[in-house]
Amino acid sequence: MIPIIKQLIHNYHKLVIVPQKRALSRLSPAQRDHITNWLSKHEFPLKQEPLLDQLSIRRIEELACTLPTLDGTIPLLSRRLTNQIRKGIELSPGHSLVFCNPVAPEKDLESDATISVCPPPEPFVRRMWASGSFRFLHPLYLGDEIISERSVKNIDIKRLDSENPMVIVEQEIATSVTASFDGSIISPGRAEGPCIIETRSHVYIPISNKRRSQKVEQTLPESDFSFTYIPTDTTLFRFSALTFNAHRIHLDKEYARNVEGLNERLVHGPMTALMLLEVIENNRPSNLRIDRFEYRATSPLFINSPITIAGKWTNDEEVNIWAHSYDNVVGMKGRASLKRIGS
Question: What sign does the CA torsion over 300, 11, 20, 22 have?
Fold first, then answer.
């Protein structure tokens, strides 16, 4: 895990121009003691308040008009889902990301307008969605009522004595059905227990004093399929609204440049992960379904710049997939295992 996080932070710094006024090189002894004492007050797993939601037709219609794989922008490569959305159809992999998201009044948001789970104290003010995974155990259907049971599995502090200290917050989210779309508590043949088990890792780092603007060139492997799109202001606004995420790094250009020190607003990590799943879903054999998926962010991806999702089959039931910018900087890597439908 740690080499992955180190690579993400290294590439992040190479894509930012950070204001000197908030520069920080190493933590002071008092800061190190403060963050260590903060961590000592937590016991794991740390359960969060469960969240309830309904897999509404309206929400999926809005998502279908947001994702380039679904909105028909690229007719031959997009699947038009809007004409098929109705109660009882199976929820596509990853679409659970727009349900059961926490809410909070504006006064309770972090300084960057996020709703954070166990955010560390200053100076760890920069948050990145670093990695995650999905296990798709049982199908969910539009109209189902669901519960999301969340816990913080672990918080890890790394490299406190270096110039690149970090705090890693790992979550686990188990989503289950409480009432089926057909009105029953649990429909006949529907399995009890979690339908999806998801993990998420957020990394918190201090403002850095490094001023680097060069981009890391990546050598890209050959792909079996690909999909290219341009995330716009509208795309990011809509995805932020769907996930009730006001993180200013996605919406506020001046904030992204002047506070976070970025060249532009960033594409959401979970949106890129969802796009990886979407492109797999568009290119999988019809007799297979996605069983497991894991992903990790490696570099920021920016608004109004072409992003290509490309995949390579490693065998009949496993695929590697990645997202890269127009100049071949890989922003996210993923891997999916598929299994035969009905098995």
Answer: positive
